[in-house]
Amino acid sequence: MEALGLESLSARSIVLSVLLGTHPPTLSARRLIALTELFGIRSGTVRTALSRMVANGELLVDDADYSLGPRLLLRQRQQDEGRSTPTDEWDGRWYTSIAVASGRPIAERRAFRAAMVGARLAELKPDIWMRPANTAPPDRPEDVVLVTGELTADDPSDLVEQLWPLAEIEQRSLDLRSALLRHRASLDADDPSVLPNTFVLSAAVVRFLRVEPQLPSELRPASWAPPGLRDDYDEFEAAFQRLLRSFLRTIG
């Protein structure tokens, strides 16, 4: 995992990872604590993290069951969309999202950026974000103009290369795909000790797919690894969930 630049997960990250991957996203405190103990994290640390996440609105608690809060339900939806194979239909139109208000508070600027990244737009210049219109349109907050239409440009591929670091995306896809293939066989042994590394790798793939640009075929390189990564991750995730469910059944 170190070769991929992946670090160990905190109690908060483990809780988020498992709930974001669970449908419906609800687990008992007992099961969450049992999972984090596999990472060597003490139960007191987990309970403190859960309390803070409830206070911050990240989680909701009902008796001893914890669920994702509204903001993280949106993130789960974006995560699920990232795992779906994008449509290859594109009519040549683009989305351009422009924040027109000046002097916006930092919180609003951060929220706008997060919304654009979540919708897979890329920043052309400050407060101007774009992408091909082959995905669902981004939300349009107040004081934001959203334009959908064709571009007048000699070669849209030049704009794509300006918006996204395609070579870096390609290499990251290949690295993650290789890691999935190396780790896959360990999931069939019904050994919960492999769950920590599995969580770390799974979280890295999901983070990548949540923001991968999902470009139409006309605008992506001939050799483009993200679709293959999605296919490999579907099979990996199925084996991961089987092992995770087997472990959780032992907790009750």
Automatic annotation (TrEMBL):
Pfam family, one: PaaX
Xref: InterPro entries: PaaX-like_N, WH-like_DNA-bd_sf
Transcriptional repressor PaaX-like N-terminal domain residues: 10-68
BP-aspect Gene Ontology terms: DNA-templated transcription
Signal peptide start and end residues: none
PANTHER family membership: PHENYLACETIC ACID REGULATOR-RELATED TRANSCRIPTIONAL REPRESSOR (PTHR30319), TRANSCRIPTIONAL REPRESSOR PAAX (PTHR30319:SF1)
Protein name stated in the entry: Transcriptional repressor PaaX-like N-terminal domain-containing protein
